Amino acid sequence: MMNMANLIIMCGNTGVGKTYIANLISQKTGYKHIRGSEVMAESEEKPPEPWPHEFRVRNYKRMFDKARSLLENDESVIIDTLFNREEFRKGAKKLTEETGSNYIPIEVTCDEKIVSKRLYERVRDRDRGGTPHFKIHKLRGKEFEPIKEPHITIDNSSGDIEKKIDDIISKLV
Fold this sequence. Notes:
By secondary structure, the chain is of the alpha/beta class. The chain has a single domain (6-171), classed as P-loop containing nucleotide triphosphate hydrolases (Rossmann fold). The chain is built from seven helices and five strands; from the N terminus they run E-H-E-H-H-E-H-E-H-H-E-H. The longest helix is centred in the middle third of the chain and has 19 residues, at 53-71. The chain starts with 5 loop residues before the first strand and ends with a helix.
C-alpha cells in the first residue's frame, strides 16, 4: 500500500515566521515538527556563523534522515528551516518520491521592517531559542533561490494568520 503521508517544507529567510507557522500547523494537524535549529544543536559540529555550505548540507541530511523514518511509518512531517537553495528543496522532493509521500513546499514571506524588529528582539531575548542577526538574514536572503515549482505562499506580515493556516490545512492532500 502506498504511503500517503505529507512532507511540508517551510521555506523562507530567518525571521519571517516559519517556526511560528510550522508550530500552528503542527498543533492543528498533529504533524511531527522537525526544526533545523534543533537538529543543528543536537549535532557534534559547532561551526562559526554564517554556517559553511558543507555544514548545511550535512544538517539537511540529518533532517531528511529524521523525516524519512517518520514518513516510512505514514506519519506526516514539517521540516522547518531555510530551504533557501534549490538543491535542498530537491533533496526534500526526492525524499517524498522515495517514501511515496506528498511534497508540499510552503514559502513564508514577511515585510523587512517587521523581520528587522523580530530579529532585534530575538537577539535581545536569548530565551526565545536563537540569536540570528539581521546581517545573516541579509546574507541568506541574497542566497535565496526562487522557488520554481508550485508551492503555497503565506505572507506573515499582517492579517489573520490563523485563518491563513486553516486555509492551508484545508488544501492539504
